[in-house]
Amino acid sequence: MAVIAKKGTHALREDKPTQTKKNKKIRSHLSYWLFIGPALFVFLMIQLIPFGMGIYYSFTSWNGISAVREWVGFQNYIQIFTNDPRFFDSFLFTTKFMIAAVLISNAIGFTLALILNAALKTKNILRTVYFLPNVIGGLLLGFIWQFIFVRGFAVIGEITNIGFFQQPWLGDAETAFWGLVIVFAWQISGYMMVIYVAALQGLDRSLLEAAKIDGANAFQLLRKIIIPLVLPAFTICLFLTISMAFKLFDLNLALTGGGPYNSTESVALNIYNEAFTMNNYGIGSAKSFIFFVIVAVVTIFQVSLTKKREVEA
Fold first, then answer.
1. Crossing angle, helix 85-116 and helix 231-246, to 10 degrees?
2. Which of 131, 140, 181, 312 is least crowded, fewest Cβ atoms below 10 Å from its Cβ?
3. Is the pLDDT of residue 17 over 70?
4. Beta-ladder partners of 84
5. What is the pLDDT of residue 1?
6. Single pTM value for the model
């Protein structure tokens, strides 16, 4: 009996550590889901479920209001590719805008970062000033710059008689295009500057000093050392600016409204007009899915290309 009692006591002692480990594991899982659960729920409700519903609606004929949703299969996609030149005109405009806006905003952002990375007494104030436009909402920014282009530039043109200010900035397709590029670059360059400044501050100063001792000039330092070392920042900034430029909407809506004569209508604005102005929600959903695929392909290609350059550098 004593031997059996000892064996039972020994078994209970072995079970206690096992039970403790199980309790710790359960608590670990509970704490994990406590932190990740709300974020996952919000992501499902705001992103994944609406995305799935949008794909479903792209195969239906629906006006966005009635309860009747007629299944039409690929008819919406066929109609877009065969009988909707306005969509492809807006996509061509958006692509041109993206190329110009990405190049200019990154060039300005990187230049500002190089200047503010120097030992300037006012660099912190200047960083704040340059970043402030990014805080202003796109709609408000569009209305502000609409007043500047229409009224402000006209007054300056009358006073100075400079042709740059006398152009019909929002009344002509060419100048309206560059007006959008100017405002977009003005808004986003400060954000890009912050990322580039962070990358420049992480550089190993000993490499720069060694290159200077070896006789490298400022251009050689920039081309051979600084740019290769901050390529990860270029990857991030290019990804952000490409996606932002492709998704141009609120600035486009407030500044030009797609005019004159739909010549500055972005893809996002075209989708909005299709779904909510003309009440073709099914076709609008199909356009948005096509747009999503194109943007995803372009950004994935850009990231893979720049990541490859990082490894080579």
1. 150
2. 312
3. no
4. none
5. 47
6. 0.84
